[in-house]
Every structure is written in C-alpha cells, then in structure tokens.
Amino acid sequence: MALLGALIALALPEATADSVAGVMRRGLLPLVRVQERAEVIRDALTTRDSNARLADSIALRALQAAALDAENTRLRGLLALGERVQWGFIPGEAVHPSARGDAHTLVLSRGARDGVTPFSGVIAPDGVVGVVRSVDPATSVVLTWPHPDLRVSAMTSDGDAAGIVAAHLGVVGDRFLLEFRGVPFRSALDSGAVIVSSGAGGVFPRGVPVGVVLREIETSEGWARTYLLRPSVHPADVGPVMVLLPQRRALGVEEAYRPQGPTAALPALRTMPVMESAMRGDSGGSR
To answer: DSSP state, 210?
Structure first.
C-alpha cells in the first residue's frame, strides 16, 4: 500500500503530492515506532537470556570448583597421613549409598583382594570413621560411628580418663553426635577436651581422634559420667579413607595424629610409592 501510494503521488501535482505524503507519514510513523520498540525489547530479552545463561554457568563452575577443592583437600590430607603412618594400611574411597536405611553404612572401593578383613578399623585424616562389617572380593561394607551397635574404647588425649564411645540416640538434631560413657565420676571434663581411641579391643590403635567434648549429660548412674561429643569425622563428609591392617593396629598410630605444623597437610612426592604399595596389599605384609 505504501508503494502504491508513492507511485500515485508521483503522478499528482506537487502540492497535492505533498499533502498525500504528509498523510502517509502521519499514518506510518506510529507503526515504525512500534517496530523500533519491538526490536529494542527483543534485543533486551536476548541480552537478558544470554546474561542469565552466563550467570548460571559461572555459578555452576563455582560450585564445581568448591567441590573439587574440598576433594583435593581430603586427598592431600590422606596422602599426608599416609606418609606419617608409612605402612600397614590400605587406602580406599568411600561410596555413600543412596538407598533408605543405609545412613549408618559406607561402601569402600577395597575388598578381600586388597587385604581387607572384617572388623578392621577405618580411619580418615580427621579421625575414626567406622569398622568393616563384611567383605566382598572388590568392595567392603563399613559401619560408621552413628550405628547403634558400634563401640570404640576411648580416653582423653592426656590419658587421665577412659570410657566407651557410642552413638547418641537422641532427637533428630542430635542423632549425629556421640556419647562418652562410663567415665569415672572423679574425672570432670571441660568442654573442648579431645577424646581419642585407647587401643583396647584391638580394632582401633591408640591415639586416633574420636570427638570433642561438648557438655556433660545427666544420667541415672551415680558412679560414672557421660559426655556428649562432637565427632571428629561426619559420615556424610567421608571420602578417601584408610583400612588398618592388624600389624599396624598393634603398634598404634599416635605419632601420625600429633600436630605436625603448617606444612603437614602438604603431601610429599615420596608418599606416592607408599600409597601404591598399600594398594597392592603388600604394605603391611613385608614388615
């Protein structure tokens, strides 16, 4: 219609053509402005979608970077602990079951072929993880400390008080805490006291961190005290672990958990042969 109007205007007198052109401009100008606004809105929406995708990508990469950084920190911790323990352990990776009812168990990537046996203690750089319950050729199942059947003979880090650590069967908010039971009544422990394995029972060697005292729990026992502990290791955060061989459990690992200074968490290159030797299952058999 605009083209036809333009052709007709060419055949009209100049005054009439100018009048017709003015009418056409007044009629088409709002349409042109609407089109311009539509293009601006389209460009804005396209830019917004692009920015949203970019922001989502950055956020996803940040989450992945945080997860990778946490995993690297755990691996460095295990390598540093392996260097201090030196022999008598089998390194492995914990797999967290997703099925209901498995909140108190972990599956390890090591089994009978690697030298894992039932009732072996499992530790991490931060402390006690649990006990091997059953073993398959390539994997093994571990009971973690929140399991109601798990017990650890424990003591204070200075050896002044001893007792048994077990799961705290309390309300939902406290179910991942521990109890330090059977502590002599004369042994009053302060909040923040470190509790470690005592070595009694032969499952865990002496000196592995178990938890930290939060407060005393009131009980009906008049001859002993019970303390609530914050565990050193939370099952949900377990990744790389060590399964201790019998020879290593007998000698203990106290020195491995003593403060080592700011450089202790940095693994040395000579740690790798130790880890590879342990993966072959000969880390404890030759000593």
So the answer is: E
Residue 138 tokens, joined: 């390539």
pTM: 0.62
Q: How confident is the model at residue 278 (pLDDT cuts 50, 70, 90)?
A: very low
166-189 burial: b if 16+ Cβ within 10 Å, else e: bbbeeeeeeebbbbbbbbeeebeb
Predicted pLDDT of residue 250 = 75
Confidence class for position 213, pLDDT limits 50, 70, 90: very high
Query: DSSP letter string over 15-56?
Result: HHHHHHHHHHHHHHHHHHHHHHHHHHHHHHHHHHHHHHHHHH
Per-position DSSP letters for 267-279, written without gaps between them:
PPTTHHHHHHHHH
Q: Calculate ∠ Cα 264-269-274, nearest 5°.
A: 90
The amino acid sitting at 259 is: P
**Cα(25)–Cα(199) distance, integer angstroms:** 96
Q: What is the mean pLDDT of the chain?
A: 76
Location of structure tokens 């790389």: 240
Q: 256, 266, 275, 283: which is closest to 93 by C-alpha?
A: 275
Q: What average pLDDT score do residues 177-198 get?
A: 91
Contact 195, 157 (CB under 8 A): yes
Helix, strand or coil, per DSSP, at residue 177? coil
